[in-house]
Every structure is written in structure tokens, then in C-alpha cells.
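Side project, low priority. Logging it here so it doesn't get lost.
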Amino acid sequence: MSSPTALGDFLRSRRARLLPQEVGLPGAGGRRRVAGLRREEIAELAGVSVDYYTRMEQGRVRNVSPAVLDALARALRLEEQETGHLHRIARPAAGARRTAPPAARPQHVRPMLATLLRSLPELPALVMGQRMDVLAWNRAAGALLGDFDALEPAARNIARITFLHPESRSLYADWEACARGNVAYLRMEAGHRPEDPRLRELIGELAVKSDEFRRWWAEHPVRDKTSGVKRFHHPVVGTLELAYETLRAADDPTQALITYAPEPGSPSEDALRLLLAWTAQEDRDTAAASRPDATPVVPRPATGRDR
């Protein structure tokens, strides 16, 4: 996650995925010795010297100008989020290494996000903080995604659950797409907070325990969580297809309210209603059983008719 290493690795990964014909260069005859474009070709497209670009990949250039980074982004055909990531890892904030990162302090849910969460009883919703930590959730989210209450606070993390809990592979209809999205989001987080010790610990744990995470992390994907559609294979109600939306406050983008909603009138809407009704009944049964005056259920003796 250190900036010089991250910059060189990111540039090489993006250079490797391009072909000469994709960027208007003539294809080389015979077999190419490198995957994708050569350093010389990227330098030519970006309008910088080969020596300067080589030193960038080697982490030997500090304070690269925004204009050069924009030129490299165009040469590498980077998307908007990838371009932002390139700027962050090439121009780390001055003094960031000398101070304790704010991300190391515990996060508390913003009051307005907590209010919004309570106002959505019929839709699964949760508040995601830094490092994809789950800070708060409603009953519907617990019914859909799993019992967060059963986890220790440190284990309530979307990426950790996705990669290290086997049941997540059956819950998500397209587990690989979800898992890759988590890797891309964590890579973006690492660009924002390269010195966050808890983020380093999470990435290290996932890299050690998951071959898939380690392989996909090496590809340097970068993508935010915004909106889309996810399909679930829920063990109680079967298939659900839900659209998700991510809402962030402009003054604190480190917390996001993520909501899931079915298309009105769809089978998924019926399935979600059934899931919420089933969960509500379970809650009532649990509350009734925990009352001090609850009558214990005593099995009746077997009779000849039962045999």
C-alpha cells in the first residue's frame, strides 16, 4: 500500500491490459516480449520521456504534476475512478506518514444516517463505514444478509464476510462479481488511506486466507460502490433480485447508507415481504420464549397411536 510501490504496480497493470491497436499504434510484427504496451509506447502517448516514465514505474519520482498524470490517464484509457486513484497514489498528502491517520479511530454512525435507517423498516439497509465495516443495520438487512448481531464488532465487515464466510458463496447468485467489487473498493480505500493500519491488517488477512482475493488484488482494480442490481439465493425465500443504491453525505464520504429494493409488483417484492414476515414471527417467538413467565414447552408422552 506504500505510494511508490502502489504507483508502479498500478501503471504496469494498466499498461499490460492495452494492445497497440487499441490506442492507435501499429501492431508489432511477431511476438511481443511484454504483455500489453511497452514503456516506450506509453511515454510516447503521454508526451513524456521514456526515462521519466520508467522512473515513475520504479517509484523514483515525487510530486508528479497533475498535467502529466492526466496525460498518463488518457494514454492508459483510465476510467474516472481509476484516474482519481492514480492522482492519489502519485501525490500522497504531505506529512501523511508522520501523523496518525483518522481512519484508525473508531467510527460512529452519523445521527442522520441512523434516522434514515430507522425510517426504512420494509427495505434492507445498512451503514457502511471505512474499510467496508458495517456500522449499523436494520432488521430487514439482517434477514437478507445474515445475523450481524452474532458477529463480534471487528468481524462485521462486508469484505471479510464475503471472502471468509462460506455461506456468502451460496447467498450471492454471482458471488465472483460481488467479491471482485469488494476488492476494487478496498483498493480505492487504500489509495485514500495508504497508512491506515486497520486497512492494512484487513488486506493482509484476506490475502493470506483467500487465494481469490490475493489474485484479484494483484490486478489492481479500482471501483467505487454506487448502484446496481444484485441477485440473492436466500435459504428461506429463494431468489430475490434487488436494486441497491449508495447514499453519502457530501461532508463525510467515509460513511454510506446502502439500501436494497425490489421492483414493485415483482416476485422479488413478494419474496421480500415473506422474508420480513418470517423474521418478525421469529422475533416474536424469541421474545415470548425469553419472558420470565413463559410456559415451557414439555413434550407429551408418546402413546400407542404415535408409535
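Brief comment: The longest helix spans residues 267-290.
Revisit when time allows.
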